[in-house]
Design a protein that fits this description.
The chain is α+β, with helices and mostly antiparallel strands. The chain is built from ten helices and twelve strands. The strands form four sheets. The protein has a four-stranded mixed sheet.
């Protein structure tokens, strides 16, 4: 009997010793894992600080916003472990309000750094959770297996929605010039923010189109004017634009062609040359059309018949002279029906004198050179960049 008791006691002591050893060993591994996770998190946070400083120094922000970013980055970088979360929260809040960086590479670096912070924080907090759970077990507490190791704390910072990388696409546009040197521009708006601008006809490449095919397709879709790729000269310009449109962040590379508008008389009016803006939109065939007088003109096709055959013809006056046939917008997509609000044939003087947003910005300065290229029929060997 005595022997049996001794054996039982030995077995119990052995099991307890094994449990003590395994628990202590596991707890030690968890502490090591937690510290390793913290080191990784510190590395991710440091990388975000570096990316933030680069964005602040790039010159795309106003002075006050850039200085605030630098200050918050410095505070986060020098904060001790106890106050690091508060400092990083302040930096995260500021970064969530910063517009896309002027240089796409910097914006991509900042987005990647922010994503790494999110992943590193989650990994660290998982390690903290497991460590705290094991330290809370009665067996660990009774035998003091944690020793003098500090209880790890969670690292809680707000995960603001991360700005996604821009949608990159290539577009082709047409600088369409009539016999008197006027250029056709379309008025556009972003219905989500109410902004307004003027652009040349054009759009993004679809499927396996080449640039010229895209240009003539978009021109026909947006204006009803049909050309062949052989009618285009170019590309004459290249423009890289970064913008947000209908909630989507784009980085768009645009190639511009120049072409002669078919059947345009080139007659002008005094109002057009003055560069004035449409006073207000009017409803024409269920769509907005921009006019200077605020009155809708009667919609007829070039033959004088009423536009009742399914085509939607939009004219604007007096920005279009009476000799200008209306545009056929029946090919507009659903998005274009919401975002394209009218058109105008602009003179060089009107372009130079307006304070409206014109894209490309250098159109007025480069229009004469574009017409020279059109007359020669020879595109430049090296496509110049424009703003």
């Amino acid at each position: 009997m005595t022997t049996a008791v001794v054996v039982v006691l030995l077995v119990v002591l052995l099991v307890a010793a094994l449990r003590l050893w395994s628990t202590a060993n596991r707890l030690d591994r968890l502490h090591v894992r937690t510290e390793a996770a913290w080191s990784a998190l510190e590395g991710a946070l440091a990388r975000r600080v570096v990316a933030t400083r680069a964005v602040a120094a790039a010159g795309g922000l106003d002075h006050a916003q850039a200085e605030e970013l630098r200050r918050l980055a410095d505070t986060a970088d020098t904060a001790d472990r106890r106050h690091r979360a508060d400092a990083e929260n302040d930096l995260s809040r500021a970064l969530s309000a910063v517009p896309p960086a002027s240089e796409p590479v910097l914006d991509a670096e900042l987005a990647d750094a922010a994503e790494r912070v999110v992943l590193a924080r989650r990994f660290y907090n998982d390690a903290v959770r497991d460590t705290r759970a094991l330290r809370a077990v009665w067996f660990t507490r009774v035998f003091g297996l944690a020793g003098r190791a500090a209880m790890p704390d969670y690292f809680e910072i707000v995960e603001y929605p991360q700005r996604s990388l821009p949608l990159r696409r290539t577009a082709a546009r047409v600088v369409l010039v009539d016999d008197s040197g006027r250029v056709l521009l379309l008025s556009g708006t972003d219905p989500q923010v109410g902004s307004r601008w003027w652009i040349t006809p054009g759009g993004g490449i679809e499927n396996d189109e080449d640039l010229a095919a895209t240009a003539v397709r978009e021109l026909a879709e947006e204006t009803g004017i049909r050309l062949s790729p052989a009618d285009l000269v170019g590309p004459i310009w290249r423009r890289v634009a970064r913008f947000v449109f209908t909630g989507i962040d784009y980085e768009q590379t645009e190639f511009y062609f120049v072409a002669r508008a078919p059947g345009r008389s080139g007659a002008e009016t005094a109002t057009e040359s003055g560069g004035g803006l449409p006073d207000r939109p009017v409803q024409v065939s269920g769509r907005e059309s921009m006019t200077d007088t605020g009155r809708a003109s009667t919609m007829t096709d070039p033959t004088g018949e009423a536009a009742t055959s399914g085509r939607t013809l939009v004219a604007t006056r007096p920005t279009d002279s009476p000799a200008d046939p209306p545009l056929d917008v029946s090919g507009h997509t659903d998005e274009e029906k919401l975002t394209l609000t009218g058109h105008r044939w602009w003179t060089a003087a009107a372009l130079a004198g307006t304070d409206e947003a014109i894209y490309p910005n250098e159109l007025s300065a480069r229009l004469e050179a574009a017409q020279t290229v059109l007359l020669s029929g020879v595109a430049p060997d090296q496509v110049p960049d424009v703003n």
